[in-house]
Amino acid sequence: MTILLYDLVGRDEKLPYSPHCWKAKMALAHKGLAFETLPTRFLDIAQVENGLSKTVPVIRDGDRAVADSFAIALHLEGAYPDRPTLFGGEGGKAMARFVERWTQITMHPFITTAIVFDIFQMQDERNVPYFRSSREARLGKRLEDVSAARDAGLGAFRASLEPLRSTLSYQPYLGGHSPLFADYIVFGALQWARVSSPYSLLDHDDPIDEWFRRCLGLFGGLGAGVPAAA
């Protein structure tokens, strides 16, 4: 049975950009599971699976609906144990929890600063007022002013990624010789930026960028199949 994934989009349904939905997509592909994406905009989320969650991703797997990318990964690991592991055991789950918190604390705030105005410009007419009002209330300033500060913070952001950079300088993936869910957590953050904005977060000779390009090519180029923002 095909799994359904509610996937965040803006005006263009062919440009899914949510970092958390990308985590779920990569996890589904890693497990080799057939899935179909259901393009979902912000103001549609309240109707997803009878209001199961205030955010996406949400999946429908048979008679079960699951919200939250990490919960989805745990569900897939438990429901399909005969397929490639996302964690490699309990230690891998604990490691992935750390990577998720590190990514959300270290990467997401600056990426939000860098791309929030670009994401605003991706929204359809119905979602534009919602996105501006909700994000400006959260960030405390106009979206244009938020993104105007990105150049000043870029150097510090790149420096903050040194633990990731150092790790990837001696192994191809966070999971070791092959990717695990921890890789897809970080990949989701960078894919969010790649699809949403032409702003360059990384130098092209950065080991992180090399790793990211490897991840883009996984599963028949699942990530690369969505074009980068121009």
Can you walk through the features of this model?
With 230 residues, the chain is α+β, with helices and mostly antiparallel strands. It has two domains: 77 residues, Glutaredoxin (3-Layer(aba) Sandwich), CATH 3.40.30.10; 132 residues, Glutathione S-transferase Yfyf (Class Pi), Chain A, domain 2 (Up-down Bundle). Helix content is 53%, strand content 9%. The chain contains ten helices and four strands; from the N terminus they run βαβββααααααααα. The chain has a four-stranded mixed β-sheet with strand order 2-1-3-4, with helices on one face. Helix 1 links the parallel strand 1 and strand 2. The protein is globular and about 50 Å long. The N and C termini lie far apart (37 Å). The model has no long low-confidence stretch (mean pLDDT 98). Pfam families: GST_C_7, GST_N_3. It comes from Mesorhizobium hungaricum. InterPro entries: Glutathione-S-Trfase_C_sf, Glutathione_S-Trfase_N, GST_UstS-like_C, Thioredoxin-like_sf. This is Beta-aryl ether-cleaving protein.
Number of domains as seen in the coordinates: 2
CATH architecture of the largest domain: Up-down Bundle
> What name does the CATH topology of the largest domain carry?
Glutathione S-transferase Yfyf (Class Pi), Chain A, domain 2
Ranges where pLDDT stays below 50 over 5 or more residues in a row are none
Structural class: alpha+beta
Name of the level-1 CATH class of the largest domain = Mainly Alpha
- Gap from first CA to last CA: 37 Å
Q: Kindly estimate the percentage of residues that lie in beta strands according to DSSP.
A: 5-15%
Number of helical runs?
Answer: 10
Per the principal axes of the C-alpha atoms, what is the gross shape? globular
> What sequence of helices (H) and strands (E) makes up the elements?
EHEEEHHHHHHHHH
Protein name: Beta-aryl ether-cleaving protein
Domain GST N-terminal: 8-84
InterPro entries: Glutathione-S-Trfase_C_sf, Glutathione_S-Trfase_N, GST_UstS-like_C, Thioredoxin-like_sf
